[in-house]
Every structure is written in structure tokens, then in C-alpha cells.
Write a structure and sequence with these properties.
Order of helices and strands: HHHEEEEHHEEEHHEHHEHHHH
Distance between the termini: 164 Å
Oligomer: single chain
Structural class: alpha+beta
Number of strands: 9
Strand content: 5-15%
Mean pLDDT: 76
Radius of gyration: 49 Å
Shape: elongated
Largest sheet: 5 strands, antiparallel
Number of helices: 13
Length: about 500
């Protein structure tokens, strides 16, 4: 009898029904060796990684999120407006899904090793084939490993150390403080829809907060996410009766949003994820880096810490499965598009500033010319005013001294061997250089043959036009002479008639 996926192991004496699945060979065995998998239901058959749930430190929701560090830092910091009660929050250890009890971990490791190396399910050579099948499932990170009839099968998840589809990347740590009160809400809606309904969204959040008049909801920013999702970062300002105001801490606001009734209302608005934007303390970062996440090789984790390009701003995070890699790739593409959009805006601003700079420089030059013009006009007015004021007065001593100095300067300038002669010599040299430069430029340049033919054709047409015009003028002159001669002959005849 061959093994099958049919009834439970208790029905060992039942015959093999027709059409039963013949396993890894058709060896003849007794009824006692018959086994079954008790019809396990695989709820994750939709894809390679869909059968498991990532319980490790996920990229994007690991920092300050509802399942991460943000909720374990400061619950109980509630204020009167929210009237929240203290809730039990996940600890840092649960972030990496570390087992709580050493004996349970030891039994899990023993069962996994038995399923991968030495299953005793059939008691014959098919156990070796089953071991290879379990190894393949472990490498995939999905499925169940059967190894003993009396022990439950091992659940293979992507967190198991044998899963091959793993990598380590880096994520930027948040630098927002708890006092900033920033909380991120991820909506399953497009950015355009969120922005068009932003005011209604703020009013809905205010109603969720109890419509308290001392509280006001403010939107810090809206950012597009992959898969038509949008992240909205908000903060709540609480105003006291004495006129002062403060921001509600992020952990307190997050704890309020995590209450069952409030969370249901947020889900009705389209919220799929709530994250508290708080930075990690050095002690928390150290605790995160001390032990690797579930299923990550300690050697790879240590190497990732060594290769961290910026330990002050980045922290290593595991990427388990192709879905996580695809999600990270989409986020990277989205950020690249946002950066390109921002660069385009900056480029347009720079172009506009360059145009403004050119216009400003032209206006400055224009104003300088106007200033020089006005200065000359003002000087002329002052000269005329001074002449009018000094009219009828004798030349004073200081004016006489100034006149003597001006005459001396004029004589020095007019002296042949002084400045005037040198200026004349320089002017002559400049004229000669300009002449030689013009000659050299004429020798240097030439006219293209086609252009020369066009010029000749144009000049020829001009010459023909002038010749035709000259002939017309000559004909007109002859006509005028003929008319004049006729007039001269008719004058004596008229004179004789009148006489």
C-alpha cells in the first residue's frame, strides 16, 4: 500500500481507495506502515511567501510603529482630553520574535532538525525523500515538515534559519522627538483624493478625538506610497484655558488611536496602518543590534552592522521574501520619482532666478546711466547757481589759487613732451593696430563660393534694373524735348495771329 494524504493515522486498516495518490514509489508495505498527513489545510497556497506571516522587524513599520518601538516608549503619558487607559504594549524583544522560553526553543530546534535530516514517519527509504522535501520547504520558507506520527509537524516560515530568500538592507531612523507629536496614518487612497478631501479628513479625525474644542488636528505632510496608498502625518495641539498650547506626545496620541473603538472608526476612514514617528534612544538602538532578527544568520547580521554606511542615521533591517523586496523596490522607485520632481522644481526655480538676475542687472545698468546723467545735470545746475550767486563779486583768494592750479595742469597737459604727446603717440599706435587688425581680418576670412554666386546674381539683377531705369529716363527726356520743340514752334504763329 502506498501512503496518501487521506484519512488520519488511526484508520490504518482501511484499504487504499481507488485513485489514491501513490507517493514516492509503489513499495509493498503492511497496513501498519500506512500513514497520512491528517488532511492539513494550507491557508497560504496563493503564493510562495503567502503562507507565512512576517513577524520579524519589517522595513517601513519597524520604527515607531504600532508593532514596533513607538508604543513601548511612553504609554501612560495620557492627558485629560483623551482620558486613555494604560494598555499593555509590545516590548523590544517581541519586535524580533524571540522565543520567550528556552525549552520551547530547544524543542522547536530538535523537531526542525529531525524533519530536515532524519524523519521517522515511514520507517523505510521514503523517509530520505521526505527529508529532502522538508528541506525544500524550509528553503522556500513555507509549508509543514512531517517527521513523526506522534508529534505535530513543523511549521516552516520565512523566519526559519534555513530560508534562502533573505537579505539585509538599511532604513533611515526617524529623528522626530516624542514631543513633536507626529503620527503617520496610511490610507488606502490616492494622494489626489486625500488632498481634495483634506478638510473633511481633519474634521473626521477631530470627531474621533471627541470633538473637544481644546484640541485641533493639523496635517504636517502628505506623501504618496506605492499601490495607490497615501501617508498622512498629523499632530494634535491641545490648548489650555490660560492660553498656552502644546503638542500631544506621539506615544499618547498613538495609544488613543490603538483603542478598539477608535481603531474601527479609523479603518472606516480607510486607515490601514498607524505609526508613531518617534526617534530611537541609543539604548534601544543598542538592544536592537545586539541580537539578530528571527531567522537571520548572526554572521550576516554582524557583517551588516559593519557595512552600515552611516550608523548614526541608518539601521540594518532584514528583507524576508520577494514580497518584501518588491515592496522596498516600489518605495525606492517612489522616492526616486519624488526626488526627480523636486529636482525639476528646483531647476525651474533656478531658471526663473537667472531670468530675474538678468533683468535686475539690466535695470541696474540702466539706473547707473540715469544716475550719471542726473549727476551731470545736477553739476551743471550747481555751476549755473554758483555763477549767479557770485555775479558782481571780485575773485576771492582761494578762487584765484584754484585758477592758478588749473592753469598749471592745463599747461602740463599741453606740453609736447608731457602727457599730451604721449597720448597722441598712444592714439597713433591704437589706430595702426586697428588698421593692421582690419587688414589681417580681411586676409583671414573668405566668402563661400555659393554665397559669392548669389551676391553676383543679385548685383547682376540690380545692374539690369538700373539699365532699364536709365533707358526709361532717356526715353522720357526725348519725349520732353519733343514736347518742348513743339511748344517753341507754336509760339510765333500765335504771336502773328494776335498782331
Amino acid at each position: 500500500m502506498a501512503f496518501n494524504f487521506g484519512p488520519a493515522a488511526g484508520a490504518a486498516a482501511a484499504p487504499n481507495p481507488a485513485g489514491a495518490f501513490g507517493g514516492f514509489g509503489a513499495a509493498n508495505t503492511t497496513a501498519g506502515s500506512t500513514f497520512s498527513f491528517s488532511a492539513p489545510t494550507n491557508t497560504g497556497a496563493g503564493g510562495l511567501f503567502s503562507a507565512t506571516q512576517n513577524k520579524g522587524f519589517g522595513f517601513g513599520t519597524g520604527f515607531g510603529t504600532g508593532t514596533g518601538l513607538g508604543t513601548g516608549l511612553g504609554t501612560g503619558l495620557g492627558f485629560g482630553a483623551f482620558s486613555t487607559q494604560q494598555q499593555q504594549q509590545p516590548t523590544l524583544g517581541s519586535l524580533f520574535s524571540q522565543p520567550a522560553q528556552a525549552p520551547a526553543q530547544s524543542n522547536q530546534l530538535i523537531n526542525t532538525a529531525s524533519a530536515l535530516s532524519a524523519p521517522t514517519l515511514l520507517g523505510d527509504e521514503r523517509d530520505a525523500i521526505l527529508a529532502k522535501w522538508n528541506q525544500l520547504q524550509a528553503f522556500w520558507g513555507t509549508g509543514k515538515g512531517y517527521f513523526n506520527n506522534s508529534i505535530a509537524p513543523v511549521e516552516f516560515s520565512q523566519e526559519n534559519p534555513f530560508c534562502r530568500f533573505k537579505a539585509v538592507g538599511y532604513s533611515c531612523m526617524s529623528n522626530n522627538k516624542d514631543e513633536d507629536g507626529l503620527v503617520a496614518l496610511v490610507f488606502n487612497k490616492k494622494e489626489s483624493e486625500i488632498r481634495s478631501q483634506q478638510q473633511q479628513l481633519v474634521e473626521s479625525l477631530h470627531k474621533i478625538l471627541g470633538s473637544n474644542q481644546t484640541l485641533s488636528v493639523n496635517v504636517e505632510g502628505v506623501k504618496t506610497l506605492p499601490d495607490d496608498q497615501t501617508e498622512v502625518v498629523i499632530y494634535v495641539v491641545e490648548r489650555s484655558p490660560n492660553g498656552t498650547s502644546r503638542r500631544v506626545p506621539s506615544t499618547t496620541l498613538y495609544a488613543h488611536f490603538e483603542q478598539a473603538n477608535v481603531k474601527n472608526q479609523l479603518q472606516q476612514l480607510g486607515v490601514t496602518l498607524i505609526m508613531a514617528r518617534t526617534e530611537l534612544s541609543p539604548a534601544q538602538v543598542k538592544q536592537l543590534l545586539q541580537s539578530p532578527p528571527a531567522g537571520v544568520d548572526p554572521i550576516i547580521w554582524e557583517q551588516a552592522k559593519v557595512d552600515n554606511p552611516d550608523p548614526e542615521k541608518l539601521i540594518p533591517v532584514p528583507m524576508v521574501g520577494f514580497k518584501e523586496l518588491l515592496r522596498r523596490l516600489k518605495v525606492q522607485d517612489q522616492m526616486t520619482k519624488q526626488h526627480q520632481t523636486r529636482l525639476d522644481i528646483i531647476s525651474e526655480d533656478i531658471s526663473e532666478l537667472q531670468k530675474n538676475q538678468t533683468t535686475t542687472m539690466a535695470k541696474i545698468a540702466q539706473y547707473k546711466r540715469k544716475l550719471m546723467d542726473l549727476s551731470h545735470r545736477t553739476l551743471q545746475v550747481l555751476i549755473k547757481q554758483e555763477i549767479q550767486r557770485k555775479s558782481g563779486y571780485a575773485i576771492q583768494a582761494d578762487e584765484e589759487q584754484l585758477r592758478v592750479q588749473l592753469d598749471t595742469i592745463q599747461c602740463e597737459l599741453n606740453a609736447p613732451t608731457q602727457f599730451k604727446g604721449r597720448l597722441n603717440e598712444l592714439m597713433s599706435q591704437i589706430r595702426m593696430q586697428n588698421h593692421f587688425g582690419a587688414v589681417r581680418s580681411e586676409e583671414r576670412y573668405y566668402i563661400d563660393a555659393d554665397l559669392l554666386r548669389e551676391i553676383k546674381q543679385h548685383l547682376k539683377q540690380q545692374q539690369e534694373g538700373l539699365s532699364h531705369l536709365i533707358s526709361i529716363v532717356k526715353d522720357d527726356l526725348e519725349d520732353i524735348k519733343l514736347i518742348e520743340h513743339g511748344l517753341n514752334e507754336s509760339l510765333p504763329i500765335r504771336g502773328g495771329v494776335f498782331s
